[in-house]
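ESCALATION

Customer reports they have been waiting on this structure for their group meeting. Please prioritize. Original submission:
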Amino acid sequence: MNIRTSILLPLALIISGCGGEKLPPGKITVRAWHFPDIVHSAALAGKARGTFGKELGPDVNIDWKIFNAGPSAIEALFAGEVDIGYIGPNPAINGYIKSGGRALRIVCGASSGGAGLVVRKDSGINRIQDLNNRKIATPQLGNTQDVACRAWLRQQGFEVSEKGGTVGVIPVRNPDQLTLFIKKEIDAAWTKEPWVARLIKEGNGRLFLDERDIWPEGKFVTAHVIVRKEFLDAHPDLVEKWIRAHIDITRWINDNPQEARNLIRRELGIITGKELAPDVLEDAFSRTSLTWDPVQKSLMTSAEWAFESGFLGDAKPDLSGIYDLTLLNKVLAEKRTVK
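Update from on-call: job pushed to the front of the queue and completed.
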């Protein structure tokens, strides 16, 4: 069937791989990236198992980079420093709009779900009305979870404090959210995995709202694969191979959950310096679906919410060209896969 249409690190960017190597004649470097997040598990597992390298072949060198936030990845893409990677919907939207639609294309989905609102168990927040005069942390101003939080609050009849309302929405780095939870300096946080699970398990939190509950069929994009447009135009064959590898590793993760989670846990530990507790990882995966479906309608809704919150300028953006799913559909047809 055709498809139509963050753990934060001490440094802004950690570069791994062999970007500085002198490559043999004729060898191509693909500069890829991901975040150390559960919703980027396909990248974590595919890199560790060599899935992408095997599919792209011996004449391609993959230079992996790890970013801690969407804006940094988009800035690197604008500068021509990266080619293909994993990112959330709102950074992709912002990058597309800022470049006048010229910089990037979404070519494949990566994850759905894996976000929600956690409240401190001792905060006294038991009903929606109890959020009045409370402080809710989000990972970053205008990021995907920040946009969803503000939209949901409006739907519940609240307005944020900077617009004269009674609910404070405060951009706070994910590790700091956990610290502030423990110190009782914030009441709640709307974030993504594995931080939802960590706030519950380590911060005496309670899941107040699983974000899946506000979306049709519980599906909404939390990560997808984007490509620098110039790279896509120059190397469609490599992008096609990347998509094929992404589908293969996603299937492997879904078919081998325990082995995959052990691998992902180890890879996250290598990057961050600390492995997640097994029960935290299991809890995080219970709310996260790994996929290749872009869940396009949810991105368009996120864009509407961002516009309503004042993040996308004075005119509604035209996102009609943000997707190029030609290669995804081709690979799916070859694999005889039904979405």
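Sent to customer with the following note: The radius of gyration is 19 Å.
Escalation resolved.
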